[in-house]
Amino acid sequence: MLAACLAAQMLALISIFLLSIPVWARVSGAFLCLAHGIWLWGRHIRLTHATAFRGLRRTADGWQLWNRARGWQAVQLRRDSLALPSVVIVRFSLRGERRVRTLCIPRDALAPDQHRRLRVRLKFSRRRWLAPE
User: How deeply is 48 buried, as exposed, middle or buried, from its count of CB atoms within 10 A (0-12, 13-18, 19+)?
Assistant: First the structure.
């Protein structure tokens, strides 16, 4: 995950400096790229921020995500969630929000058996698209 984010940041910075735009636009674009990278670091790479989602579970009430700030929260999974052998991409929205968020779970983030169970459960869960009650 870190390598992919660093590669995307480097490509963005290189493209900004290859454009024929004024110097102030280059500097502000580079600043915005670096600020976005710093913002991503704790929330999506290291998962140290209090609002970073660090747990996923399925209960009788539906799917839930956990973070330190709010604990377990009910979520509604979106139909474009993807379960591949190497990565699980969970697209979801929290209760009462229209904003769709994404959570990437690489294969090495879980034990192989747990990752396989998650993929199977995401593919074959009957009520996975229902809104939380």
Answer: exposed
